[in-house]
Design goal:
heterodimer; A: mainly alpha; elongated; B: mainly alpha; 13 helices
């Protein structure tokens, strides 16, 4: 079965449950908004129109405008793009680093393996949001810092799974056969171990997307993540929250967008896990 | 057996110490790259160069880095977290002044999550496959997935602004317990909902797992009542994962409490850190973050130990799997 065909059949399984289908639909909408943001958005998300602030939803502004008269719908669409970029960057980094450390730990002698595991324990024992606050306090708010902090906190997540998967695979007869035939270490890892452990890691990655979106939005809501005027769901909620006593529309619209997105990705990630391997990522 | 237990205890203690050490090292490293001169911030723009130089040497900032590191550790060990560079008050005092607010909020949230999550989980497990089970499953995911501060904003909007049922912001200053209780309701609910979902799901899955075990079947064969089996045997074993999750949860709850405190303008550690960041008041950030890390690590240690006390099967080699 080709990769595409197996992907399609997995998706079909995901969508066979109501929650999976709803999740997939939301994920699809968010992805379309993220990738095609400039075309989906009806206005320039940063165009000010102060005379027209807090406008009610209309044909021109589908979801109304914010406190500076910026089009809320367009800002939300661009917010999706920011959220997805940060999620993909952070998770990509965590996945790469975690998998490397995890495979390494499985092959290292017991003493070094123990060191890597303690490192994982130490990282996951940090209350990450609070740690992020300390870093931001020193280095100032920026998107790059958010990405790095989130990536580091997710490393143990991938590392542990990569290690335990590699351990179950390590003594498999086909790897032994390869080794006896003289396959080099890199060849073993890249051509045999990695492809066999990647599945669970990818599912884990998809389940981490809502987590990253939440952290980014939380930090940006505090004004410690994505900097205004860049539209992120967190900064949008912050903008709306400041004017909550004047108008509830902006804060409700942006919170609903964030809530729906995290819900959609969670539903999708869980349906994906149940479709492929229900044992993955159960620790949280 | 005894030796094993002692070794396990020792290794957990070492890891805990390492984590605190790592946290302190990190915070110290951050403090040494903090931009801006704390002495200048403390003295204000009118400070003469001589005066600020004296201040710097008084604060020990002109010492070589290893001496400053040593001093930092020695100070922290003796309970001295430095002084607030804006007001000049000791950081430790500022933290102990607000810590009770955060602790009360965190524990009320856990309490609420446990007393609602466990019954919901039992209900879902004993009514497996029913419509209510599916509805509960969806509600649980929604609670878990939607960020706590979004829930907080909605609660604020609905109950405080639209319906005007509960006081909006802050804490009670007068020491009026009833008023304080009313002000606690929304933040507690906002902080706990995610955990209600978590616990409900966890209890449901673990109970269903336990119900399939041989000893439950045996109890049924002996004619024990379904009620006794469910509540005494199944629930007891289903509680173990709940306790672990709570241990992990304290850290996330503390993180979440930061946001909740800010949404509801409540005093607390989160609020303290947040305000200190906007003033670039690094000693306060450093001290407060360190306290959060220590509290978090100690709670984790306690949970770990109580976990192995409840179920003696899980005691050693826990650092291995990680997926437990």
């Amino acid at each position: 079965m080709s990769v595409l065909a197996s992907l399609m059949s997995t998706l079909r399984t995901v969508c066979s449950t109501l929650t999976g289908a709803v999740g997939f639909a939301i994920v699809l909408v968010v992805m379309v908004c993220a990738i095609f943001a400039p075309w989906v958005a009806t206005h320039n998300p940063d165009a000010l129109d102060v005379m027209n602030r807090f406008a009610a939803p209309s044909g021109a502004h589908w979801l109304g405008t914010d406190h500076l008269g910026r089009d809320l719908f367009s800002r939300m669409v661009h917010g999706a793009s920011v959220a997805m970029q940060i999620a993909i960057l952070a998770i990509g980094m965590a996945l790469t680093l975690g998998t490397t450390l995890g495979i390494l730990a499985a092959y290292l002698p017991a003493r070094s393996e123990r060191f890597v595991l303690i490192l994982f324990d130490v990282i996951s024992s940090f209350p990450s949001l609070v740690l992020a606050l300390a870093v931001v306090a020193v280095l100032g708010p920026s998107t790059g810092i958010v990405v790095v902090i989130v990536a580091v906190t997710l490393v143990p997540h991938f590392g542990r799974v990569a290690r335990s998967q590699t351990l179950t695979l390590k003594n498999a007869p086909f790897l032994e056969a390869e080794r006896i035939l003289g396959a080099s270490w890199p060849r073993l890892v890249f051509f045999h171990v990695l492809p066999n452990i990647l599945g669970p890691l990818v599912i884990l990655a998809s389940m981490d997307i809502p987590v990253v979106i939440t952290i980014e939005a939380g930090l940006s809501f505090l004004g410690l993540g994505v900097r205004p005027p860049l539209a992120s769901w967190g900064t949008l909620i912050q903008d709306g929250y400041q004017y909550i006593s004047q108008t509830w529309l902006p804060v409700v619209v942006s919170s609903v967008a964030l809530g729906l997105a995290t819900l959609g990705f969670t539903l999708f990630g869980e349906a994906l896990r149940d479709a492929v391997d229900p044992r993955i990522g159960r620790e949280h | 057996m005894q030796a094993d237990t002692a070794r396990y205890l020792a290794s957990r203690l070492v890891t805990t110490a390492l984590i605190v050490f790592g946290a302190m090292l990190l915070l110290f490293t951050l403090s040494s790259i903090v931009p801006g001169d704390p002495a200048a911030i403390l003295l204000g723009p009118q400070a003469t160069p001589e005066y600020s130089k004296r201040m710097i040497s008084e604060m020990g900032l002109d010492q070589p880095i290893h001496i400053r590191l040593w001093r930092f550790f020695a100070n922290v060990a003796s309970g001295n977290l430095g002084i607030d560079i804006v007001s000049g008050r000791p950081v430790w005092g500022m933290i102990t002044a607000v810590l009770p607010y955060t602790i009360v909020l965190t524990f009320s949230a856990i309490f609420l999550a446990v007393i609602t999550g466990i019954p919901l989980g039992i209900f879902a497990a004993t009514h497996r496959g029913s419509v209510m089970d599916s509805i509960l499953a969806f509600i649980s995911v929604a609670f878990i997935a939607v960020p706590g501060f979004v829930i907080a904003i909605f609660l604020l909007l609905i109950f405080a602004i639209w319906l005007n049922w509960l006081p909006v912001l802050g804490t009670s200053r007068s020491g009026d317990w009833l008023d304080e209780f009313r002000r606690m309701i929304l933040p507690t609910v906002a902080l706990s909902l995610g955990w209600v979902g978590f616990i409900a799901r966890l209890v449901r899955t673990s109970m269903l797992e336990v119900m399939g075990e041989n000893y439950i079947r045996t109890s049924r064969a002996y004619g024990l009542s379904e009620r006794l089996i469910t509540y005494k045997y199944a629930l007891k074993n289903a509680c173990i994962p709940t306790i672990t999750i709570l241990g992990l949860g304290i850290g996330r709850l503390l993180g979440g409490a930061v946001l909740i405190e800010i949404v509801f303008a409540r005093p607390g550690l989160g609020r303290l850190i947040y305000d200190a960041i906007s003033e670039r008041n690094y000693p306060v950030v450093q001290g407060a973050v360190l306290v959060v890390v220590v509290v978090f690590v100690l709670v984790n240690l306690m949970v770990d130990l109580s976990y192995s006390a409840i179920d003696p099967r899980i005691r050693h080699g826990s650092s291995g799997g990680g997926a437990a």
